[in-house]
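Q: Joint fold for the lines below.
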Amino acid sequence: MNILSVKLPDVGEGVTEAELAEWTVKVGDIVKEDDVIAAVMTDKATVEIPSLYDGRITWLAGEVGDVLAVGSELVRIETEAEAVAGDTPEPIAEPAPDPDPAPEPPSETAEAPAPAPRKPAPATPAQPGPPRAEGQAPLASPSVRARARQGGLDLRQVPGTGPAGRITHDDLDTLFDQPPRGRQPGAAAGRAKRSGTEEIKVIGMRRKIAERMALANQRIPHITVVEEVDVTALEDLRTRMNATRGDRPKLTVLPLVAAALARAVVDHPEMNAHYMDDEGHVLRHAGVHVGMATMTEAGLVVPVLRHVEALGLFEIAAEIARLSEAARAGKAGRDELTGSTITITSLGPLGALATTPIINHPEVAILGINKMATRPMWDGSQFVPRKMMNISASFDHRVIDGWDAAVFVQRMKTLLETPALIFVEA
Amino acid sequence: MKTESCTLLIIGAGPGGYVCGIRAGQLGLDTIVVEGDRPGGTCLNVGCIPSKALIHAADEFAKVSQFAGDNELGISTTAPRIDLARTLAWKDGIVKRLTGGVSSLLKKSGTRVVSGTARILDGKTVEVDTREGPRRISCEHLVIATGSKPLELPALPFRGPVISSTEALDLQELPKRLTVVGGGYIGLEIGTALAKLGAEVTVVEAADRILPQYDAELTKPVMARLAALGITLHLSARASGLTDEGRALTVESAEGRQEIAADKVLVTVGRAPVTRGFGLQDLGLTMNGEFLAIDDRCATSMRGVYAIGDVTGDPMLAHRAMAQGVIVAEHLAGQPALWDKRAIPAVCFTDPEIVTVGQLPGDAAADVQTAVFPFAANGRSLTVERSDGFVRILHAADTGLVLGIQAVGTGVSELAGEFALAIEMAATLTDIAETIHAHPTLSETVQETALKGLGRALHI
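A: Joint structure:
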């Protein structure tokens, strides 16, 4: 038997450390080669780490949330295998591992002499009894019953874990510790005081988000400009394009906004930039890589639409669909989650009247899309129904002046209100 | 008339009423107990306690009588005589001590006792006829604890030679021939005692066996003992009255009519609740047969009126009334008390004694098993020269949950506590079997019975 260790592999270019996101094994577990033993989190991607050996886990490197250096020991496995040479274990194609990995302890039948003749009666008093029949009094000692009465608890609804289904003080402890579920001693329904706090560990993706948000908000003095946009024409265009789209993906507002943004930054290159505040320079990017803030189960991720300036509307739509699907499934790769130069954030129907978006550091601008609604607008002689939508854009006030911010927002407004301009040659 | 007031007024200072009064006093309720007689009710004055005193005296007398003859213990003595008047004086002394004790306990708890006959005016007002004149008391809550009295047979009204248990416990002279009408536990307890004291006792029972509420297995040892004591049984027989000169009881049975000569005829055919003659009926409370209907907090159908003890029905037992009294007092003091007892033990002080707790074989459902262990296999039983009887446990077949425990045997009344505890605690056979029972005691038999139910009895 050897004790071999599995080290944290190189999980991405330039990554030197990773956070433990999940253990899928614990000490004592039997693992097969290639079984996933842990998941680690780098930047914004989660990587599953497979076992290199068959054997039994004897040691784990830490707890979920701990940060480990690449190359450090992750687990130790007691195994009969020889240490794998090299850093990349070559997974050997072999039949699917037997789902029953543990060598079974000798079964009872193997136990030598048959137990001495036992009670003839089928009574097995230590077994919990079957659920109580309707109308049958709950089994509980007088002190348990008195305590239940005191606590306003109906014992008929309490499962007993004691012998014969007896309700014990432990059962009551469990119930009284639980947050009230419609049951509240002597209190009107729903008017109960609640006490206690629940600690939620901020780890993994949430910790990354927290760090980035804090960084952005600490370093960047935001200026946010909210403007009202008449998107009636844009919506007409979108409706017509969708009517003739054939088997191309359905257009949402987002591809049009992304295209408008790509067009706007042609005249405003200062917006498609990274302010490297530590280095003291601004990098203006030629390509427009639009980050699309996307909600996933794990939290906010920002997949990147690359080179929007070179994409048609339907191409953008297809790419958005692909990226958001990948992000929600947790399958977006590292290169799909980094490298944006400007970001769009949209909450869709939840978009509210206005938002104050936080810039995706080190970018200098972010565009928030608010809710669209048909509103009565005065056209000079009468009210007419128009499709209206607000945009809320935030800028890094260190490098973008208020004037420039306002001009840029007006440019966006113009492009969105007269969408033909998006496609006019610069 | 000036109206006094209190929070809680209890009519009757029997076991239910006085316990309710003590507990209410302890809980700070302004309480009055009204009693027309001495406190303690039937139980202390003319029931449980005096009958147990008489049974004890009779047992001692019988024991010495046995020693006067040939006996295995090698004790010799001359034939004893008994001065029944002194025995009764001793018994009265015990009763007096206990009733006096109840009075001082009530006083200590702060509850007032008003001596006199109560008459209910309405659900919140009671008039008490005291020696000093009538007193009117208004209360927030009223507890009816008026108990029960011996049931009279129309053909055998209580007068002359026909007596109830009350008079039977106060006989200054031993009747030469006593006929007991009714083979229930009261008649058998007193009949057996008087037989041991030397009376010639005959029992007339309408059912085809004595103690008809119990199964035949339980009563068999008692039957055997009655026969050994020379007590004559007339089963399936009905007492139809006294002969004209009043010296004999006429009995009708399948064999026809016969006369049983008797100096005294003790009628013990049951007890009837005391619900008449003090204005209770005017309240129009919902009844349950002849008893007052109550809920699990002993509340009657009228708000603020409660009932406890024998007026609320069977089993008419002092300890049930006491438990009800506590529940009412605690409920009125705002505590979450209610009747959720799993078992009321019942003890029959015959010879040998019978204890029943919980399910009896008759009411057992399908998946119930029975384990029986005889006292004949118990060392302690042999050392007290009485090895008749057994312990029996009814338990669930699947879980071993104890559903009922019964025993018949000398001294088994003291096992009643363990039996009741087992059922209240929802004990299983294993719980009893794994509890060390002291050796050498009768209680070992309980453990052995549980072991037997588990298929691993040791001493049989």
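Q: Anything notable?
A: The longest strand of chain A covers residues 365-378. The two ends of chain A are 71 Å apart (CA to CA).
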